[in-house]
Amino acid sequence: MKSKDIFNPKGIVVPDPVQAVCIWWGKDHFAYGSYSYVAVGFSGDDYDILAESVWNERVFFAGEATNKQYHATMHGAFLSVLRGCKHFESGKEKVFHACF
User: Fold this and answer.
1) Is the pLDDT of residue 98 over 60?
2) What are the C-alpha distances in Å from 66 to residues 4, 40, 41, 73, 76?
3) In this predicted model, what pLDDT tens digit does every residue of 33-43 receive, in sequence order?
4) CA–CA separation, 34 vs 55, rounded Å?
5) CA–CA separation, 81 vs 95, rounded Å?
6) Which of these, 72, 80, 74, 75, lies nearest to 96 by C-alpha position?
């Protein structure tokens, strides 16, 4: 399912992506299919910190590690992408990095 399939019926125009990169995280030598978890000494608030925009609200991140309620799940990653898509409605040039 594409974000256009979700938002266009609601009257929200979704522009075509400028660039996309596909990473096979199951074969990534640094990840090997890993997922996020709250380590000892940390809190769930760290997920919120990862979800914050940076660089004058022009760079946004998504992925299961940015969703405190549904971390370590595919649906958490998907919901975080939907959250990130909202930021493109303003029409300003932005960068959106989804990792799941």
Assistant:
1) no
2) 22, 18, 18, 11, 8
3) 778 888 898 88
4) 27
5) 13
6) 80
